[in-house]
Amino acid sequence: MQIVRGVDLVLEKGEFAAIMGPSGSGKSTLLYMMGLLDQPTTGKVLSNGKDISNLPDREMAMFRNKMMGFIFQSYRLLPQYTALDNVILPLAYAGEMHRKEDAKKLLEKIGLGKRIKNRPSELSGGECQRVAICRALINRPTVLLGDEPTGALDTKTGEEIMDILLDLHRDGMTILLVTHDPRIAKRTQRVLHFADGKLQG
Amino acid sequence: MNISESFSISFVNLKSNKVRAFLSMLGIIIGIAAVIIVVAITNGAKEEVLQSIGTEDSFIYVVNAKYNEKTNRQIELKTDDLEMFKGLLFIKSVLPKIYKTFEVRTPKKHLKRSIAMINPSYLKTHRITLLSGRNINEFDVTQRSRVCLISKKLARLLFETATPVGQTVSLGQAALNVVGVVEPFSNQAMGEALMEDEESMDPNDLLVPYTTALRLESDLRIDEISLYVDKNYSGNALQQIQSSIEKNSKTMDDFSIQDPKEILAQIEKQTALFTTFLGAIASISLLVGGVGIMNVMLTSVAERTREIGIRKALGASQKDILYQFVIEACVICTLGGVIGIFLGVVVSYLIPWMTNHKISTSIVGNSLAVSFLFSLVVGIVFGIFPALKGSKLSPAEALRVE
Q: Hey, of B314, B318, B322, B391, which one would you mutate to test binding to chain A, going by the most A CBs within 10 A of its CB?
């Protein structure tokens, strides 16, 4: 089954872009392929001109670990871990457990200094998404990929999350979001419209 | 990601689902405990027989009177018969044995007990510890001193004290002076558990010099004669005993001799058979336990698809996921193994106590080590298949599961 076809998308360094489109249009699949979570049947994903879509599993895992930060609509935190341990997890896979303090600092900076020992079930939606952002940032990725990161949040909390993302963008982070909320898309630099597996220009 | 992190991950996961982890261990726990208990019972039975046919440094040949088919009568063993074997140098001790019980009386208590007829070396050969007082000596034997040794257990029953040395106990018509308190080997392990056991028929509760004991009643009938043959003796002891009987102008038609070496060979054969049988049962039970673990791990892979997706998105490779599930299975099995061993050892200790010493047990160290290794192997073998399945999931597909 073809979900996405004939898409040619270039994301510049330091750019903040949003892909908009109705649900089922294939915009998430495109994001997942760019994040190496899904394999394109044909076509390539290039990073700095290098084809990264056909790397061996181990290298692909390291790419996801070091270069990409993911945030999801339903946060995707591990329920059995505390907020701090969730943020530490990418460090474990990177073999950089000595940087545990950085995880704490990140959580403090984002305003969750007093919640680091709480589990996701004890946190509000906004707090969970902020933990997820810290987790995405801990390995200092080059790209932040968001799959409807405000989709499960009320308008006010969603705006707060967008404020954080805009701050990150000001600091030089490259960000690509998938959303169907025009108010969210409006706040980014560049909006790509997507329908039936194609970019609408 | 290194091994210690993989371990901490599996511990976190097991802790977050304790009930399921315990249920999946149950098969292993029961399997291992069962193996240890049954091996302990078999070994206990073997040791009990071994104790009855020998001591540390000697084999016990038992001489009985037998029904003579030629004369159609059965002789009775007499005190004189003990003398027949005195000339054989490889025999360390000759002791008579009687099965009948005697009236044992003190001012406070009155009960029936069987007795052991002993010589000075009896305590050492039967691994009986002298707690207080003195052992009997050669003088007591030759002079038929009216003395006796009693077990701590019997001392408490008869005198309500553990130190009755110097007091007198009436045995049939005779009054014997208690010169020492002992603790038979079989009671040491059990501690105080059997204190109130008035029905015990352990002859080692009341030990009397055999010369004294033979005079307790006139015309006392001996039930059997135990010959303690040096274990290092290389000649044919049985033949020499038989010829010694015939030299004393008696006929072997009147006697039967139990050859401990023959019994030993039989036990070894039976134990080997039983062990093979047990090994088969153990393998089956642990296999079932392993399948239980596999089932749980498979369910857990299916249930935790989302977690696998998240971990892969965060940088876990196929190998990391594989290790995580294998280690989890191993931790479950090892933990189950340790609990199973603990349970098995505890129950093995309780069985003699619960069955009033009708069943004795003796734990075999090897059975602990082997079952522990086995549980680890089960963990690896039955953990790998679900782990492979989990590690191959595509992250995007795994993440789509809600």
A: B314
Stretches where chain A sits below pLDDT 50 are none
Half-sphere exposure of B294 (CA within 13 A, CB side): 16
Beta carbons of B313 and A38 less than 8 Å apart: no
Interchain contact B318–A (C-beta under 8 A): yes
| Tens-digit pLDDT profile for residues B87-134 | 788 888 888 888 888 888 888 888 888 899 999 988 888 888 899 899
Query: What does the pLDDT read at residue A115?
Result: 94
For chain B, the average pLDDT equals 84
Residues of chain B with Cβ-Cβ distance to A74 below 8 Å are 402
User: Whole-prediction pTM value?
Assistant: 0.70
Distance from CA of B2 to the nearest CA of A (A): 7
The residue type at A191:
V
Query: Measured between beta carbons, which residues in chain A are less than 8 angstroms from residue B313?
Result: 35, 37, 64, 70, 76
Name the band, by pLDDT with cuts 50, 70 and 90, for residue B257: confident
Quick one: pLDDT band at residue B288, thresholds 50, 70, 90?
confident
Is B394 touching A (CB cutoff 8 A)? yes
Look up residue B137 and give its DSSP letter.
Answer: -
Helix (H, G, I), strand (E, B) or coil at A144: strand
Is residue B188 over pLDDT 50?
A: no
Q: Do residues B229 and B63 lie in contact, with contact meaning Cβ atoms separated by under 8 Å? A: no
How would you label B120-150 residue by residue, b for 16+ Cβ within 10 Å and e otherwise? ebbbebbebeebebebbeeebbeeebbbbbb
* Interface touch A61/B312, C-beta < 8 Å: yes
Quick check: B153 pLDDT over 50?
yes
The pLDDT of residue B199 is 58
H-type alpha helices, B54-75: none
**Interface test with chain B among A30, A64, A75, by most B beta carbons within 10 Å:** A64
Indicate if the pLDDT at residue B216 is higher than 60: yes
The values of phi and psi at residue B7, to 5°, are -65, -45
Helix axes A125-137, A83-94, angle to 10 degrees: 20
Work out the number of other CB atoms within 10 angstroms of the CB of residue B117. 21
Contacts of B395 in chain A (CB under 8 A): 32, 37-38, 64
Which chain A residue lies closest to B318 (C-alpha atoms)? A57
Q: Nearest by CB to B317, from A57, A79, A80: name it.
A: A57
Distance (Å, whole) CA B73 – CA A188? 117
Q: How many CB atoms are located within 10 Å of the residue B347 CB?
A: 16
Residues of A in contact with B21 (CB under 8 A): none
Cβ-nearest to A93 among B306, B315, B402: B315
Q: Specify the pLDDT at position A62.
A: 94
The pLDDT of residue B299: 82
Give the closest of B16, B314, B394 to A89, CB-based. B314
What residues contact residue B184 under an 8 Å CB cut-off, 6+ apart?
Answer: B126, B128, B151, B202, B204, B205
B31-45: pLDDT as tens digits: 889 888 888 888 888
